[in-house]
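re: that chain from earlier
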Amino acid sequence: MSTVQKCPDCGGYQFVEDHAAGDIVCKGCGLVVESHIIDERSEWRTFSDKDKDTADPSRVGGPSNPLLEGGGLSTVIGKAQNDPLGLSYSLNRLHTRGGNNPERNLITAFKKISDMCDQLSLVATIKDRACELYRDAMKTGSMRGKNMQAVAAGCLYLACRTEGNPRTFKEITAVLPSEVQRKDIARCFKDIVQAFKDKVAETGEGSSMLKLLVQAQQHAADYVRRYTAELKLNHQVFRACQDAALAATPKENGGQRSGSGVRQAWDSRSPLSVAAAIIYAITQLCPNPQDRVNLQHIVVVTGVAEATIRGAYRDLYPELHRLVPKYHAKEEAIRKLPTPNARD
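^ sequence. v structure.
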């Protein structure tokens, strides 16, 4: 953009801009006042329906997608406005119905995964991993005929576990239409894992991905950070909950259990219910009454039934003296915790 206000030669105030050469020329004396002006307008048109009478604000095309063949670039027949015979509309309709875009289903599924990630507030790495899993699952041929939304949800559930930010089937089902049920997502999730196992057994490809998926076991520590944040607990309480959850995790699954790794009563329980019970126990040991959270509030945040949390708390209760960090509470305070059968 030119900033010239007065001609330094003749003192004139009228100028002409030469767009081809990028020069600003004085209209009175012909002096080239400014040269090599940068044109900030669009260099080309996109020939879209909206780009008819107004300047096109888009300077580049859409982003490429490495998960699609050719980066997702394709040819589209546009619809012309000055077409009395309607040939352009007919060609566009035939092109759309003709199936010339074999990756149309992938694009639709990727859009659905992106929408679910936005509603669940998931980061881009999880979305990319879910899209990658969906593409690889469809290549196996085992997902043919299955509900696209259920398969996409199963891949998203698997991606969340792989990236260490798990979500429950209940949370994912809540952002899907009512016709997609929880059992459909769980069934697709099992089929996806089985499809990867079969692919490795037949071709030997994807063994590293399968190893990552199979070993991405869930444990209580994965849920503690999110739920303590939703409960608005301070960092010290979060740290105590995290350490207790790691201590309650089986050693072979990344826990810090000491001894010979004896199986505990809560090992068969859902990691979500164990995390909720640990948060309840840790908050009850807080010296400040404002940091204590009642069981009903934990039920609302975690979505776990009160009876389930009480059952997990009953299993954890005999070992709380070992699970609760020493810096958070002494054994005397732990012995004063509510008994498993007590009510708030």
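The two ends are 70 Å apart (CA to CA).
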